[in-house]
Amino acid sequence: MDIKKITDGLSVSGQIQIDDMVKLARRGFRAVVCNRPDGEAADQPTHEEMQRAAEAAGLAFLYLPVTPGIVSEETAEAFRTALTELPGPVFGYCRTGTRTTTLWSLAMAKEKSVVDILAATKAAGYDMSGVARRIANGGVTPTDSVEDAKFDVVVVGGGAAGVAMAASLKARKPDLEIAIIDPAGTHYYQPGWTMVGAGVFDAQTTAKTMGSLIPRGVHWLKSAVAAFEPKNNAVILDGCRVVKYDRLVVCPGLKLDWARIEGLTETLGKNGVTSNYRYDLAPYTWKLVQGLKGGKAIFTQPPMPIKCAGAPQKALYLSAHEWETRGVLPNIEIDFMNAGGVLFGVKDYVPALEGYIARYGANVNFFHNLVAIDGPGKKATFEVAKPDAAKETITVDFDMIHVVPPQVAPDFIRVSPLADAAGWVDVDQVTLRHKEYDNIWSLGDVMNAPNAKTAAAARMQAPVVADNIAADIDGKSPQSAYNGYGSCPLTVEKGKIVLAEFGYGGVLLPSFPKWLLDGTKPTRKAWILKEQILPPVYWKAMLRGKEWLIKPEKVHAK
Hints:
The protein is an alpha/beta fold.
């Protein structure tokens, strides 16, 4: 038996045999449901034989046959009733386990979200995306509606990547009917939150209403995505509305998984626990920095990938510089707890950063991953996993801790047919086209190209995707290539920045000649770029389809 657990109360498998009933009882099951009609195969025991064996083993038994491809609403409701009335845990089987899993998915549709159902079934090895519409419709088969929307291009995600790409594409193809799907009412300039945490920017300057930024002529569907049906060129929204497309662009960003760190969500924004990765918390970072006159300050970095890999240490440098300026730095012990094994992934920038680590007297602890936090007790627990050493757990006291949460693809992406094994949208790293579905592209933080997840990367990717979609519409092959460009302005002190710019494989891709701005060294020019130039470039150029200083490379013929 290949038993697959769906929930604590239900496990499933393919066809079992009479002598398996005793084994099931020994494994703690208390009831068995057979969803396979008699006579599907010559070697298949009848349900009467299976019922006798189950009862002999002390198991309750229910025969609820399902014809392949026909899972009725009535049968799903009967299955739901059975799960309530039968003693649990319950074991269900059919030929492969798929029908039983489908019954459960439809039976739970009124109380669980589409994403939660797809996640549970996918973890067990069953793809329920084919019944996503029914799940979204409460388990009931939806009727076709003339009100379902249809667009030339649908963009999932209204962040930096989605708005910039839509604006760039609209500039190339003004007559296209484009829709952006995003439930958020506010759009944030997230690169500014590091500066908010240092008292340089006001938080309010990093937020604008979503409606004010949607490109002219582009539709905005203010809704959340429940599932994808790429074979039907359809996106299923919450509430079972269906949006059809000719071409799809997927760029909803990533998910900050705060809950993965035990105790963190309860203490965020108090007890000295903060993070520049949230709009409402970045001002608290500045408040803590101003108030700290002595003690222990911890800055954490989770395992990669994360958006803006330099942001965890940016918070450290700017905080330390403020303490240095106020003369309290000698009274503060700074720990940088990094789950990775290097200070920065591109070696050319490391010497300058190491100089600031030494200047501020910070202790760098590699392979230290934050797993739990006790806010009231001011204690942080780390798993230490050094190479060639046994894992250990340590607990450290703190007066202030800046936490960077683990980061994953959004749930509705991870459970979708678009995702790779790790949950990210699976694209060709050069053209950003999906590897399986030719009319789907992805950009920004959610796709699996091995580049830095930054707004600067999205700024470069947007015209690449726009170019390639326009070429596809014209019947041409992909024209533009993404070279992995990303930028990370490392704010090493107030007034100076190490401007890291690089592409795939850590190749340096500077925007300026070295005589004008050497990105490997801290400069005032780079600070002015970050503080005064990049915000208006973001709001007034990038999000409006104006591709200043961007020229995508051309695809090389193979």
